[in-house]
Specification:
This protein has about 130 residues and is of the alpha+beta class. Helix content is about 30%, strand content about 35%. A hairpin with a 2-residue loop joins strand 3 and strand 4.
Length: about 130
């Protein structure tokens, strides 16, 4: 009897994982191939804003920001961690500051290197104190 319950629990777990994986792959942001133009607004710690416009064939935001020299960071277990934007450093260990990424006006649900770029998109990098 106990083995049957264990087997049923294992089967239910496998089904649940398969359903969640299917939902993830169906709902994840998709990249757009080909040439595209997009804008990035940087909001510095003092509240000043600076606009940047990029033209690229890249499918994801992170590689463009790195190649253009707008950001500096390093790859970590969750992708690109951005430490410097437009020459300004955010340091969580110093004052709990970080660079928040927005897609349009919405807080990004993906990191910069997994955020797809589409023609006409707008992004924000906002100096934020947590």
């Amino acid at each position: 009897m106990k083995n049957k319950k264990t087997l049923l629990a294992a089967v239910a777990l496998v089904i649940l994982v398969a359903v969640l994986a299917g939902v993830y792959f169906a709902a994840r942001p998709t990249a757009e191939a080909g040439s595209k133009t997009f804008a990035v607004t940087v909001v510095h710690a003092d509240g000043s804003e600076k606009q940047f416009q990029y033209h690229t064939d890249e499918e994801y935001l992170g590689p463009v920001l790195l190649a253009e020299g707008l950001v500096e960071g390093e790859d970590g277990p969750y992708g690109l961690t951005i430490y410097v934007v437009d020459g300004e450093k955010a340091d969580w260990n110093e004052n709990q500051s970080y660079w928040a990424l927005y897609v349009g006006e919405d807080y990004a649900t993906t990191g910069a290197d997994s955020t797809p770029v589409k023609d006409g998109d707008s992004f924000k990098l906002v100096y934020t104190i947590g």
